């Protein structure tokens, strides 16, 4: 069709017939990125012993990844808008696989830490590209709800899957396979993306890259994540000069970033992306909810292995009901109701149900049974978070112009990454302080009393997580006002919004 014909006869674009196959490979990539955050946790003790990493430096195996990933997400999102989402997606997969191979083959501490940082760099390119591809590929309301339901379930359950996979690989193969396994995920996803993901060129952001914004956002976010890391590090803590200095630096850098973004012609993060009350409410509420989720995985892993003496594999299996709950909440409850009720009526109650599940887990004791306490808590937590995750993922790109899809997608990943970093530091500090206080007051010197002190610390941290989830629900009730059309505005209009004219065209 000629350019004249296209101008004279605007038509609604037909859905890509390969969209469901594309979703499968986008989902594989998302699973790889999410589970990598926890699969290494299980393997870390073995990696530490193998490479003779000191106790003081072992945290950097986790922190090197989170610093690079959290700090570069906005940059990665904008790169996907500039270069093209499919191109950024495939490049991110290839780079992530190469970094994983380097880490799995590490012969010393420095090589492993460098590989983990590289994983974070390419993950920051891959993650926002994946979500923005999903946002512009599915435009019909019912299908979009189903697609985001699947994606939300994977995003929510991937961490627990990582615990299981990490346990199996570490216990029965070798810790190095916790990294090597990413190569298989990446190859499958990259080949599938090349064959089945189609992206039209129109609507892409072709403005020049905002270099001052990149520098300010990256350094500000890295300083924030590093500050929370130091806050939870023995020997430093919240009052340490390095911790306070990092928080001050982060505040100054991010404030300067906001000022710059309001003035430059082509900002890295257009303020319109976050000032929309629906998107802003999603970023804030989900970031807070992840604080509780990350802390829970951490404490319950310790509880099951140190207090209940579960093996790494059994610890992973114990989290399966939570995964099942997330899948049911996301694909059955959320996807079925998403087109019938406003998103806030799924997200708000979802966070409340998750808080009830967390409340059950505050009843943990040294002698708690799995069936009586952990199982119902896991199920409710999974159902609630799965129901809330799915509309949150969709609202992240609600009525966003295609040129901003990548950075809007990056924002939801950024909120989760920063939330996870804050959660690990904040709740770890609460747990350690509560454990120490209880131990001193009860003169805990026997194994039984020491175990009780540990559980008391976990429970105190979980109480804070309950409160955080309730705050998330309140934020949703206050800020999120989008109607049920939020998941898929009518296709075929003349506007520039995702779901209208600027959606992917079939490219043969």
Please explain how this structure is put together.
The protein has 508 residues and is mainly α. It folds into 2 domains: 413 residues, Growth Hormone, Chain: A; 58 residues. It contains 17 helices and no strands. Helix 3 packs antiparallel against helix 8, helix 5 crosses helix 16 and helix 14 runs antiparallel to helix 15. It is globular and about 70 Å long. The two termini are 15 Å apart. 56% of the residues are buried. Keywords: Antibiotic resistance, Cell membrane, Membrane, Transmembrane, Transmembrane helix, Transport. It is found in: Cell membrane. This is MFS transporter. It is a multi-pass membrane protein. It holds the Pfam family MFS_1.
Topology:
Elements: H1 3-8, H2 19-51, H3 60-83, H4 85-104, H5 109-137, H6 141-172, H7 177-196, H8 211-231, H9 241-261, H10 271-275, H11 277-307, H12 312-318, H13 320-337, H14 344-361, H15 370-395, H16 405-441, H17 447-479
Helix pairs in contact: 2-3, 2-5, 2-6, 2-7, 3-4, 3-5, 3-8, 3-16, 4-5, 4-7, 5-16, 6-12, 6-13, 6-15, 8-9, 8-16, 11-15, 11-16, 11-17, 13-15, 14-15, 14-17, 16-17
């Amino acid at each position: 069709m000629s350019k004249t014909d296209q101008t004279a006869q605007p038509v609604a674009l037909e859905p890509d017939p390969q969209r469901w196959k594309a979703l499968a490979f986008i989902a594989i990539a998302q699973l790889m990125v999410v589970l990598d955050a926890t699969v290494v946790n299980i393997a870390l003790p073995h990696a530490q012993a193998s490479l003779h990493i000191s106790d003081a430096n072992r945290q950097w195996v986790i922190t090197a990844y989170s610093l690079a990933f959290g700090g570069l997400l906005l940059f990665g999102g904008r790169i996907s808008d500039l270069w093209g989402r499919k191109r950024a997606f495939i490049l991110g997969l290839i780079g992530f696989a190469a970094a994983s191979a380097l880490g799995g083959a590490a012969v010393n501490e420095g090589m492993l830490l460098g590989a983990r940082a590289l994983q974070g760099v390419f993950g920051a390119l891959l993650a926002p590209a994946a979500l923005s591809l999903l946002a512009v590929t599915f435009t019909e309301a019912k299908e979009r709800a189903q697609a985001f339901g699947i994606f939300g379930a994977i995003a929510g359950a991937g961490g627990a899957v990582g615990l299981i996979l990490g346990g199996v690989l570490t216990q029965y193969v070798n810790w190095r396979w916790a990294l090597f396994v990413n190569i298989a995920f990446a190859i499958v996803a990259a080949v599938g993306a090349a064959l089945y993901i189609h992206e039209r060129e129109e609507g892409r952001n072709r403005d020049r890259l905002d270099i001052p914004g990149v520098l300010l956002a990256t350094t500000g976010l890295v300083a924030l994540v590093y500050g929370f890391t130091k806050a939870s590090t023995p020997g430093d803590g919240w009052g340490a000069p390095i911790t306070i200095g990092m928080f001050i630096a982060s505040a100054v850098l991010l404030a300067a970033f906001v000022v710059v973004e309001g003035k430059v012609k082509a900002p890295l993060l257009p303020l319109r992306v976050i000032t929309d009350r629906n998107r802003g409410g999603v970023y804030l509420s989900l970031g807070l909810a992840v604080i509780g989720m990350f802390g829970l995985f951490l404490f319950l892993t310790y509880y099951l292995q140190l207090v209940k003496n579960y093996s790494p594999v059994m610890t992973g299996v114990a989290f399966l009901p939570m995964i099942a709950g997330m899948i049911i909440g996301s694909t059955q409850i959320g996807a079925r109701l998403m087109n019938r009720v406003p998103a806030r009526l799924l997200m708000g109650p979802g966070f409340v149900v998750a808080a009830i599940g967390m409340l059950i887990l505050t009843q943990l004791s040294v002698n708690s049974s799995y069936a009586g306490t952990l199982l119902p808590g896991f199920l409710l937590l999974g159902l609630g978070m799965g129901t809330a995750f799915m509309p949150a993922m969709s609202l992240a790109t609600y009525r966003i112009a295609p040129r901003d899809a990548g950075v809007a997608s990056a924002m939801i990943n950024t909120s989760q990454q920063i939330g996870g970093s804050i959660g690990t530091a904040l709740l770890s500090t609460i747990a350690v302080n509560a454990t120490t206080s209880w131990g001193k007051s009860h003169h805990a010197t026997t194994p039984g009393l020491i175990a009780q002190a540990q559980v008391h610390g976990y429970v105190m941290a979980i109480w804070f997580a309950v409160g955080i989830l309730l705050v998330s629900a309140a934020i949703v009730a206050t800020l999120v006002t989008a109607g049920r059309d939020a998941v898929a505005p009518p296709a075929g209009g003349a506007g520039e919004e995702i779901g209208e004219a600027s959606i992917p065209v079939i490219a043969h």
